[in-house]
Design a protein that fits this description.
The protein is α/β, with parallel strands linked by helices. The chain folds into three domains: 121 residues, 3-Layer(aba) Sandwich (Udp-n-acetylmuramoylalanyl-d-glutamate--2,6- Diaminopimelate Ligase, Chain: A, domain 1); 117 residues, Udp-n-acetylmuramoylalanyl-d-glutamate--2,6- Diaminopimelate Ligase, Chain: A, domain 1 (3-Layer(aba) Sandwich), CATH 3.40.1390.30; 106 residues, Alpha-Beta Plaits. It is 31% helix and 29% strand. The protein is built from 13 helices and 17 strands. Strands 7-12-14-15-16-13 form a six-stranded mixed β-sheet, sandwiched between helices. Helix 1 crosses helix 13 and helix 6 packs antiparallel against helix 7. 38% of the residues are buried. Belongs to the GTP cyclohydrolase I type 2/NIF3 family. GO terms for molecular function: metal ion binding. Keywords: Metal-binding. This is GTP cyclohydrolase 1 type 2 homolog. It comes from Acetobacterium paludosum.
């Protein structure tokens, strides 16, 4: 199955819009063109020479990575350096590169949600919520025979997504009136004559970042020369926002601390874990932050977590955990984020459904840190 790269990007950014990313981050399309046709995707945590070689060998058209390959402006593309070699190979083999990083970390149903579900947490909430999204209700008026098409445009462009449901719309019927003026080219009616038409009012909730593109697509597909629509600001974002860093939830059944360690090692397929602080006897409430989240020790403690799971734990992070009478488990940066490949696959499959291209998890994606 082949799709346009723009469709793959839309499926990801419906869940993890770029405006969720931290200011210092660099996300989005880094190599390639959005009109490119994609048949095979290689998914990785990091972009390395070996990962690109695997993409070439497996004839992938697109690499999707979690960590940005290009962070700052490049001063050279010389193949004497690894970055130059990688970019040269990507362009030479017509392989696009797309990155979703902190926007995926912070997104509701993004990486941290995926990790929380993987560990079996229930009643999951965001550990450090970001500012709430702005939501709007978009109302469109159309002749009844066009309603199904309008609803399809709503759904395909991310409108009407509420929790685990999409295509959530409401319609009501009425009579619309209008009079085409001189110079108009009406779909229904005649110039200078008042026309009454059976119309539907179709409405759905839309995040602000998707609103402009949705309206453009609706205008392209609406039968009328001038589409009538209303944009109504909502307060819902204050109540339904779950974007932000980290997650906190509870285990269905409490575990003894050693049993919990074994559980995390098994789920994340890790031979060992590091830890610091004061180990509680029983674990019920669990906080987590994929990658580097030791700065959330205080917040996790304040929200009454029994433990924080993260990576990149440093000496003074351990000291802070001890001083807070709190337990932190270090499952590694790679260990807490390698599940991003399955997370990407799930998001893209949900967005593209039966139009999904082949997706491969990179075998060359490895932990850079080696225990000897």
């Amino acid at each position: 199955m082949s799709v346009k790269l723009s469709d793959v990007i839309r499926s990801i950014e419906t869940v993890a819009p770029k405006n969720l990313a931290e200011d210092w981050d660099n996300v989005g399309l880094q190599v390639g063109a959005s009109k490119q046709v994609i048949e095979r995707i290689l998914i990785t945590l990091d972009v390395t020479v070996d990962v690109v070689a695997e993409a070439v060998d497996k004839k992938a058209d697109l690499i999707i990575a979690h960590h940005p390959f290009i962070f700052n402006g490049l001063k050279t593309l010389s193949a004497d350096y690894q970055k130059g070699q990688i970019i040269t190979q990507l362009i030479k083999n017509d392989i696009a590169l797309y990155v979703a990083h902190t926007n995926l970390d912070k997104a509701e149903n993004g990486l941290n949600d995926y990790l929380a579900h993987l560990l079996g947490l229930k009643s999951i909430q965001t550990l450090d919520p970001s500012d709430p999204k702005s939501y709007f209700k978009l109302v469109v008026y159309a002749p009844a025979e066009a309603t199904d098409k309008i609803i399809d445009v709503f759904g395909k462009n991310g409108a009407g997504s509420i929790g685990d449901y999409d295509y959530c719309t409401y319609r009501s019927s009425g009579i619309g009136t209008f009079r085409p003026l001189q110079g108009a080219n009406p779909f229904i009616g005649e110039v200078d004559a008042i026309t009454s038409v059976d119309e539907d009012r179709i409405e759905a909730i839309v995040p602000e970042e998707l609103l402009k593109q949705l309206i453009l697509q609706l205008k392209k597909n609406h039968p009328y020369e001038e589409m009538a629509y209303d944009i109504i600001p909502l307060e819902n974002g204050k109540f339904i926002n779950q974007n932000g860093l980290g997650k906190i939830g509870r285990l269905e059944n409490p575990l003894k601390s050693q049993d919990f360690i074994d559980h995390v090692k098994k789920i994340l397929n890790l031979p060992s874990l590091r830890g610091a602080g004061v180990i509680p006897e029983t674990i019920r409430r669990v906080a987590l932050c994929s990658g580097s989240g030791a700065d959330m020790i205080g917040l996790a403690k304040a929200k009454k977590a029994d433990v924080l799971i993260t990576g990149d734990l440093k000496h003074h992070d351990g000291q802070r955990a001890l001083e807070n009478n709190f337990w932190v488990l270090d499952a590694g940066h790679f260990g807490t984020e390698k599940c991003v490949a399955e997370c990407f696959k799930a998001i893209i499959k949900a967005g593209l459904k039966e139009n999904c291209p082949e997706m491969i998890i990179a075998e060359a994606s490895k932990d850079f840190i080696i225990n000897y």
